[in-house]
Every structure is written in C-alpha cells, then in structure tokens.
Write a structure and sequence with these properties.
single chain; about 240 residues; alpha/beta; Rossmann fold; 6-stranded mixed β-sheet; 4-stranded antiparallel β-sheet; 7 helices; about 35% helix; globular; binds adenosine-5'-triphosphate; binds magnesium ion
Length: about 240
C-alpha cells in the first residue's frame, strides 16, 4: 500500500485497520463559469483513535471535506476508504448503509427530525438497522446524560435551544460507536463550558473506542486537544 508523498505523518495502514483515508480528492461544484473547486487534490489519513482538527476561513472547503469523507457527496476524483472499505466504490444504497453503520456525522445545522424526542433521535438509526435492544436504550440514556440533556430527553427539537439541539446531534452521532466521527462545528451555538464538555466527550470517544475523528473548528482551545491540526485554504489542506 502506498502513502501519499505529501503526508509524511500518515499511518500507512489506516484504511485497512478501520480508520479514514482520503486519497487525492478533488471536488468540483457547479459548472461552466460558476464552477468552484471546493477540494483540490486533498490527501488525509486518520488512524483509529486519532483526533484531527481542521481550521480555515469560511468557504475554504471544510464542510465539503466532511461531506466527501462521510459519503454524502461523491468526489469528482479520488477515493475514500473507511473502516477498510472503499466508500467511493459502493453503490448509493451500499454507501447509505455503510454510512449508517460506520460513520457518525455532526452537521453544522443539527438536522434533527422535528417529530422525534431527544431519546427517539438517538434510537432511530439502530431501529432502522434492526439493532434496537436494551443495551442500545441504556447507551442512549448514558449519552443523553453525558451531553447534559437528561431533563430534556422527552423534548422535541422545537423545545430545545440551538446548543441543546447540537448536543443532541452529537449524542446521536456517538450512538453507534462509529469507526469514523465527522464533526462540523457551528461557530456560535455552544458557550465555552458546553463547548469544552462536548469536545471532551468527542476526545473520550475517539481515544477509548478507537474512533477516527475529524472536527472542523474555529476554537483555538480545541486545537490543543486535537492530535493534529490541518489548515484548509481554497480547497487545499496543509
Ligand atoms: N452546491 C454548491 N454549488 C456550488 N458551489 C458550492 C456548493 N456548495 C458549496 N459551494 C462552494 O464551495 C466552497 C466550499 O464550501 P464549504 O461549504 O465546503 O466551505 P466551508 O469551509 O465549510 O465554509 P464555512 O466555514 O462557511 O462553513 C465555497 O466556495 C462554496 O461557495
Ligand atoms: Mg462549513
């Protein structure tokens, strides 16, 4: 297996052992005069148990990077390997199943289902997968407590603050103990204390469960918690 020449710290077998690997990813959005190169020959290797932070200005391609890494967006060229599988080689249906099973996504907007309570948001992915059992219910309550929402477990999204919604999204992403965790941090929804708690939970998940984590952030405090920090500028990662 070859390692991209630009990534000297890469773990060569990250893909084989369950991490995340992006190889020479380019993503072009729009066409003609309005075409934008959102990702420009990006290589990224995240080993299991590694916490990578990505910083960069608005519009630099951070969300695009996570969308491609999580299989939500097909790259124009390049390959994505996740948990030992080449995500970019799967059919749409297979990719959706792989995403549900192996990838935890915390979006910039919380993307909660309006009709479900906090607890139900967490249980839904396992329900869809036919894996909803007593252990899953216990794990849901444990995570709801870990994000400080025990008193809101039966509330629906419209009854929650922005920060509470985001913490629900984080708890939901951790439910399946995903091989890969992708976090697109909103800039304003969480205060400093809550934000530090959320990051502690993410770091704990990463190290204890061997998750390969990529987090987009503007918070310099978080950058110190991360194992590596990359900067994204005009679709290039350095
Ligand atoms: N559907 C689309 N069609 C065309 N261009 C797009 C599309 N989506 C995003 N872009 C462009 O791609 C570039 C990267 O966008 P992206 O959302 O990845 O940036 P970002 O780094 O996440 O920004 P922010 O910090 O504001 O969230 C931007 O120039 C954006 O305008
Ligand atoms: Mg973004």
């Amino acid at each position: 297996m070859t390692t991209p020449a630009t990534d000297h710290r890469a773990t060569p077998d990250a893909a084989g052992s369950g991490g995340l690997r992006l190889l020479d990813i380019t993503l072009t959005l729009g066409d003609g005069d309005t075409a934008v190169t959102a990702l420009d020959h990006v290589d990224l290797n995240v080993a299991p148990g590694e916490f990578v932070a990505v910083v960069g200005p608005s519009g630099s391609g951070k969300s695009s990077l996570l969308a491609v890494a999580g299989g939500l967006q097909r790259p124009t060229s390049g390959t994505v390997h996740i948990a030992g599988t080449e995500l970019t080689a799967l059919s749409d249906g297979e990719r959706t199943a792989a995403r549900r099973r192996h990838i935890g996504f915390v979006f910039q907007q919380s993307n909660l289902l309006p009709s479900l309570t906090v607890r139900e948001q967490l249980l839904l992915p396992l329900h869809i997968d036919g894996r909803l059992d007593a252990a899953a219910r216990a794990r849901a309550d444990e995570l709801i407590e870990a994000v400080g929402l025990s008193h809101r477990a039966d509330s629906r999204p419209h009854q929650l603050s922005g920060g509470e919604r985001q913490r629900t999204g984080l708890a939901r992403a951790l439910m399946t103990s995903p091989a890969v965790l992708l976090v697109d941090e909103p800039t304003s929804a969480l205060d400093r204390v809550r934000s530090a708690e959320a990051v502690r939970l993410i770091a704990e998940q990463t190290h204890e469960r061997g998750t390969a984590t990529v987090m987009v952030t503007h918070d310099t405090a978080i950058m110190h918690t991360a194992d590596r920090v990359y900067e994204m500028v005009d679709g290039r990662l350095s």
